[in-house]
């Protein structure tokens, strides 16, 4: 067993030390909640009768408290392809619960918006704060206090972090994340399912599975590029919060159904009344948070998690910032090339060895914490294997070497020696730079800037030919307090064209990009944001700005100290944006998670 890398050990130690007070306060709160035990065992008859009145055939079991009662928090809707399969999960999970003497109830639902639908639209300004709304919805669902454990049904961008934040405030309860898997990628469902079934049963080779996956196409399930949604699923695996290997098994298959059944059964086993109590508060500790960051770096995951990981950590009393992320990035190599950072999608990634291979390679080389308290019962070694069906039963097998060297590599021969997430600092603040998505020759750009306040204005200037030169495009007033920090992917095509024309181009913004970030160098999530007088508010057209991932520099040669900030713009109204004014006004910086809820809760 390899010794933990000294930098990972050092970063983890620092996270533990700076979190000591807040983590102790959190665990104290969770301990008090557990001791109060405000559940159906001690409820008044009137309270309890309300709780099981709609439970139909499970009424008697809940009334008698004859077994654990599982609360299901679901982010189901059938507009969002990743969540469409969840429509039938509750009924299936109720049946699975009865198999082991347990019951299950839908505790509540949460919003689930699709960034793919709202990308570049006004609705995107609600996206980041949907995470707060999801966390609040999760808390409302669990406030009924009649549950012994929690099934969290969510996949996409803000949904998993929101579920996590809400569930952590009920951290005295065990919780398991239950995914539904990615959509297929093209050939007929019949042929695709046949090959997957054969592979799950050990009757098809990995090469045959890879050939099948390379020809698949879209349907219900998670989008197959490696963006925030699939980065979420990666993190739940490397934090030990899934059934091992559950992340990237497609919907509607026998293997997927068995994994959901196993999650339900496990939720009945890890309750306080059982012999293997695993409350979420003790599963999500400092080591688990560090592992989440390591997984993000090793797989080239979404830059959105530079915001979400600190926010999830705060909900557990843990302090994790971009300095921690950058230091980890220097020693965690890039082991995966998944579209848009490679040619194959997540189905190809899974077929080549997927998360089991990644976790195994990291553990073998001392690059991740093995000794996590996972929901599965052992340590993280359980997550180095892949699930399959053996005569219809769920089992796990060893993975071995990478099934595709263009998709998954080794620590000895990585695609890139670092994790590709760099911290930039200077007189323009702090920002993130996803170097794994950008060719090294573009890592440094120093040029006069052009300042904008909307994506539309950038594209209009491009169409007029005003950006046909070396230029740093600054798009400001896009932070959490300004307009909810939308993603800015409408900028990517125009800036990519300028780069292809031979110009040195970079983007600087206090807005967001995601796992779909493209080839153009970008300093994103700039903090402090422009609204309220941040450095970006003082830039003027023509100021020379330097963006350098080599040295970690984000600066201007202009003297900003004597300048007056540009006027804060009035927030746009309509399409519900005015309802989120409270969230905008109370939100904190991106590096702390960009959350109004966590900021006002004193976390």
TrEMBL record:
The UniProt keyword set, sorted, is: 4Fe-4S, Carbohydrate metabolism, Gluconate utilization, Iron, Iron-sulfur, Lyase, Metal-binding
Q: Which cofactor does it need?
A: [4Fe-4S] cluster
Q: What InterPro entries does the entry give?
A: 6-phosphgluc_deHydtase, Dihydro-acid_dehy_C, DiOHA_6PGluconate_deHydtase_CS, ILV_EDD_C, ILV_EDD_N, IlvD/EDD_N
Q: Enumerate the Pfam families for this protein.
A: ILV_EDD_C (PF24877), ILVD_EDD_N (PF00920)
**The keyword Lyase is assigned to this record:** yes
GO cellular component terms? cytosol
Q: Which pathway features in its UniProt record?
A: Carbohydrate metabolism; Entner-Doudoroff pathway
Q: How is the cofactor bound?
A: Binds 1 [4Fe-4S] cluster.
Q: Which domain of life is it from?
A: Bacteria
Ligand binding ([4Fe-4S] cluster): 156, 223
Provide the Dihydroxy-acid/6-phosphogluconate dehydratase C-terminal domain boundaries.
407-593
Name the EC number(s).
4.2.1.12
**Listed GO MF terms:** 4 iron, 4 sulfur cluster binding; metal ion binding; phosphogluconate dehydratase activity
The chemistry this enzyme catalyses reads:
6-phospho-D-gluconate = 2-dehydro-3-deoxy-6-phospho-D-gluconate + H2O
- Dihydroxy-acid/6-phosphogluconate dehydratase N-terminal domain location: 68-381
User: Key word Iron present in the record?
Assistant: yes
Give the record's GO biological process terms: D-gluconate metabolic process; Entner-Doudoroff pathway through 6-phosphogluconate
Name the PANTHER family for this protein. Answer: D-XYLONATE DEHYDRATASE (PTHR43661), PHOSPHOGLUCONATE DEHYDRATASE (PTHR43661:SF1)
HAMAP family reported for this sequence:
Edd
What does the sequence similarity comment in the record state about its family?
A: Belongs to the IlvD/Edd family.
Q: What NCBIfam families does the database record attribute to this sequence? A: edd (TIGR01196)
**Any idea what job this protein has?**
Catalyzes the dehydration of 6-phospho-D-gluconate to 2-dehydro-3-deoxy-6-phospho-D-gluconate.
Designated name of the protein: Phosphogluconate dehydratase
Q: Which organism is it from?
A: Qipengyuania atrilutea
The uppermost taxa in this organism's lineage are: Bacteria, Pseudomonadati, Pseudomonadota, Alphaproteobacteria, Sphingomonadales
Q: State which gene encodes it.
A: edd
């Amino acid at each position: 067993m390899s010794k933990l890398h000294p930098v990972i050990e050092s970063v983890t130690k620092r996270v533990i030390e700076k979190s000591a007070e807040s983590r102790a306060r959190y665990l104290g709160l969770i301990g008090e909640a557990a001791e109060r035990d405000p559940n159906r065992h001690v409820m008044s008859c009137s309270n309890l009768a309300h709780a099981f009145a709609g439970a139909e055939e499970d009424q008697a079991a809940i009334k008698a408290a004859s077994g654990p009662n599982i609360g299901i928090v679901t982010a189901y809707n059938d507009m969002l392809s990743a969540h469409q399969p969840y429509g039938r999960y509750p009924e299936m999970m109720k049946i699975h619960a009865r198999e082991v003497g347990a019951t299950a109830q839908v505790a509540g639902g949460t919003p689930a918006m699709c960034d793919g639908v709202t990308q570049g639209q006004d609705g995107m300004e609600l996206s980041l704060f949907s995470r707060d709304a999801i966390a609040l919805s999760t808390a409302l669902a669990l406030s009924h206090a009649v549950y012994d454990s929690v099934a969290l049904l969510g996949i996409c961008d803000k949904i998993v972090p929101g579920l996590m934040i809400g569930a952590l405030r009920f951290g005295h309860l065990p919780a398991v994340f239950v995914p539904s898997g990615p959509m297929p990628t093209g050939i007929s469902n019949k042929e695709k399912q046949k090959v997957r079934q054969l592979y799950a049963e050990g009757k098809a080779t990995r090469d045959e599975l890879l050939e099948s996956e390379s020809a698949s196409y879209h349907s219900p399930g998670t989008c197959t590029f490696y963006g925030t949604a699939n980065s979420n699923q990666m993190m739940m695996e490397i934090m030990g919060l899934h059934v091992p290997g559950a992340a990237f098994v497609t919907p509607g298959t026998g293997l997927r159904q068995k994994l959901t059944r196993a999650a339900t059964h496990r939720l009945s086993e890890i309750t306080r009344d059982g012999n293997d109590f695993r409350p979420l508060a003790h599963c999500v500790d400092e080591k688990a948070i560090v592992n989440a960051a390591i997984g993000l770096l090793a797989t080239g995951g979404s830059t959105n998690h530079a915001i979400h990981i600190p926010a999830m950590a705060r909900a557990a009393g843990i302090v994790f910032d971009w300095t921690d992320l950058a230091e980890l990035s220097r020693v965690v190599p890039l082991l995966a090339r998944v579209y848009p950072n490679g040619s194959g999608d997540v189905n190809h990634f899974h077929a080549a060895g997927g998360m089991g291979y990644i976790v195994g390679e990291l553990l073998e080389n001392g690059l991740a914490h093995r000794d996590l308290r996972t929901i599965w019962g052992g340590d993280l070694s359980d997550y180095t294997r892949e699930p399959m069906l053996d005569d219809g039963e769920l089992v796990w097998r060893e993975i071995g070497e990478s099934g595709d060297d263009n998709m998954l590599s080794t620590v000895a021969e990585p695609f890139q020696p670092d994790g590709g997430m760099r911290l930039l600092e200077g007189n323009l603040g702090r920002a993130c730079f996803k170097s794994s998505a950008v060719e090294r020759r573009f890592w440094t750009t120093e040029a006069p800037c052009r300042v904008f306040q909307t994506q539309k204005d950038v594209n209009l200037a491009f169409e007029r030919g005003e950006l046909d030169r070396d230029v740093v495009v600054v798009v400001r007033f896009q932070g959490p307090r300004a307009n909810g920090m939308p993603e800015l992917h409408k900028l990517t095509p125009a800036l990519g064209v300028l780069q292809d024309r031979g110009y040195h181009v970079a983007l600087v913004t206090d807005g967001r990009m995601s796992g779909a970030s493209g080839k153009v160098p970008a300093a994103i999530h700039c903090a402090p944001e422009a609204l309220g007088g941040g450095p970006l508010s003082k830039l003027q057209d023509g100021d020379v700005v330097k963006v350098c991932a080599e040295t970690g520099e984000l600066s201007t040669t202009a003297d900003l100290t004597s300048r007056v900030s540009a006027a804060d713009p009035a927030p746009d109204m309509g399409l519900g944006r005015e309802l989120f004014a409270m969230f905008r006004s109370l939100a904190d910086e991106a590096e702390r998670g960009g959350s109004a809820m966590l900021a006002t809760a004193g976390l």
